[in-house]
């Protein structure tokens, strides 16, 4: 006799990413839905990891991460944001940005707490907040409209959503899926918010090195007032085209990091030793992070210019390796339905932006936008564009 097990996440099934990837495979479609590269990590990095294995770096690393990697992260963040973190007590190497985020939610929020999410929001946040026993409160961005061609955070709306129960605000810039980046005036607005409300800032900066058009990535860690409240999270997987290695890190003031480490210790204890040793060495020898903006900007522009010969209108992407496309010329309806049809009928898979909202079927979650990933080989992008150029207006009609 079977007994039903009450679920902690009753409304969570397969993610849209899993669903679209499976459909792409089934339809032999080109998968621009997947948020990861189809090219290998740098050869020198693979050699550095291989050498670390051969040199015997194959047993448990220290719980907080190899000292040489934490020191390399401290130097990188200091050079990037002018913020000095102690490698000993304020930096932890994690099993990807995912574990850093999960450990932060579990360590720093409690039942009854509220956590603000800016919609559209990456799909990990809300379930992780619920597992921590807290409540996600979603504040929508202003969606693109005539005269405002990009998503923008409405900081007044964020401010008005704060209550005495608000424990944390989640930031994700460069932003997945919209490609929006933080500007100095956004950091000003955040300073005004934390001056009057004692909240924490969980800053997911996985795409920190992928910013375009001569911009510099701005982190709340760069402002002393914000740094006191900020948990900075990032991902070597995104930076080094090695998402399957699942190595990330977080930085935070010592009293906050002490709590995160308690959870990290009992979640994974430590992270793959040869990966850490190889990355530490490669960070000291490589200039790859500085080369990423130019590398990805070429791919963004290749995809955007090719889309001009289709009914899809690309929105401007300021960062990440994603580009949103406006599909209004193809008719109205749910974004997911169109994404499914494009995969089946045109052979190109994408992700509906509605999937990043609490209710993907709600009219306010559907702006006729799809997300395309351009972290692909030029040949992959060209093949996808060739298929999309066969689109006729009214496909979704």
From TrEMBL:
UniProt GO MF annotations: transaminase activity
Domain of life, per lineage: Bacteria
Keywords: Aminotransferase, Pyridoxal phosphate, Transferase
NCBIfam families for this protein: PRK09082.1 (NF006569)
Protein name listed in UniProt: Pyridoxal phosphate-dependent aminotransferase
KW Transferase (keyword) present: yes
InterPro entries assigned to the protein according to its UniProt record, in alphabetical order: Aminotransferase_I/II_large, Kynurenine-oxoglutarate_AT, PyrdxlP-dep_Trfase, PyrdxlP-dep_Trfase_major, PyrdxlP-dep_Trfase_small
UniProt xrefs under PANTHER family: FI04487P (PTHR43807)
Pfam families hit by this protein: Aminotran_1_2
Domain Aminotransferase class I/classII large: 30-388
Cofactors (names): pyridoxal 5'-phosphate
